[in-house]
Amino acid sequence: MPQSVKGVIARGAARPAEIVEIVIPDPGPHDVVVDVEACGVCHTDLAYRDGDVSDDFPFLLGHEAAGRVALIGDEVTHVAVGDYVVLNWRAVCGQCRACRKGVPQYCFATHNASRRMTLADGTELEAALGIGAFAEKTLVHEGQCTRVSEQARPEVAGLLGCGVMAGLGAALNTGAVQRGESVAVIGLGGVGCAAVAGAALAGATTIIACDIDAKKLAAAEEFGATATLDTHGLSRDQIVERVQELTGGFGADVVIDAVGLPATYETAFYARDLAGRVVLVGVPGPRAELTVPLADVFSRGGALMSSWYGDCLPERDIPTLVDLHLAGRLPLERFVTGTVGLEGVDHALSTLHEGDVLRTVAVTR
């Protein structure tokens, strides 16, 4: 039987998100109904609400979530009723050209639920990143559920569903930070601080955190930064010079741009050592353009990479990172700077413009 629950939707661009009754259909053969326990408030949901992703309104917002499997389709084998799971938006298909090449982190046909959730009047909802978890329940594909330890609090574990994983993976997977290397991270929101934490977890010995906000610089130190650089009022060349001073005059082995502006990317490009790696994890605007002399690209060598969802494989990475958190090696709890109920989601989305929090989490149970 379909179920009616409360959920947070966006009806139109830049309109306030609102709580309404939504209908969860019976699961298809490979679908799963999840009782959502907590869901992080992410910039991607703000982009959905404000019409910066698409105009396929109405959207059911929310995607950084943890909860418990409540109902499964007839052919589900991946999870069972009662399993405690983190939701992910990379349920790889195993059949596309990326999966066949052995790089499933670039899967072109990730799975979503086979049926749409709706409003009470039957209007179909577009679920944010195929998840839609600012709700008491949501419907997803079984592959979007990753089982994790019951000991992890849902408001903490759910953050691995998107932003925190993006930053951790930018360091651990895309940048492949090695023990003893130097890393610079530009931009210290939730993703940037997670990149700092990932670099520390990988064993980097020099981790330079760069931002214009003193509070964010202080937060980065809690996640493992060995040096902080207040970039307010500094030119690109001045920032590059400071990074070089902190890395023996060479530049960092890995520079992670967690902002995604042409200016920050150019800084990252020149702040790396020869043959160093640049990782772009901050999402650029659709009209952002970059101008770098091609001779500089050639002469500096190394690698220029972008990182989608931290190039993670959820089934491999999420349980491992949860276990590292529970072992005291990854302070995921420090990302949670506040909690709200579903009624507080719209305000929490709006405050993301101010940049004063790492993660607000909507708790539904």
TrEMBL record:
Obligatory cofactor(s): Zn(2+)
Keywords: Metal-binding, NAD, Oxidoreductase, Zinc
Domain Alcohol dehydrogenase-like C-terminal: start-end pairs: 190-324
Keyword NAD attributed: yes
Top-level class of the enzyme under EC nomenclature: oxidoreductase
Keyword Ubl conjugation listed: no
Residue ranges annotated for the Alcohol dehydrogenase-like N-terminal domain, each copy included: 28-149
Matches recorded under InterPro entries: ADH-like_C, ADH-like_N, ADH_Zn_CS, GroES-like_sf, MycoS_dep_FDH, NAD(P)-bd_dom_sf
GO terms for MF: mycothiol-dependent formaldehyde dehydrogenase activity
Known EC number: 1.1.1.306
Entries under PANTHER family matching the protein: ALCOHOL DEHYDROGENASE, ALCOHOL DEHYDROGENASE CLASS-3
Family label: Belongs to the zinc-containing alcohol dehydrogenase family.
Protein name, per record: S-(Hydroxymethyl)mycothiol dehydrogenase
Organism whose genome encodes this protein: Brachybacterium huguangmaarense
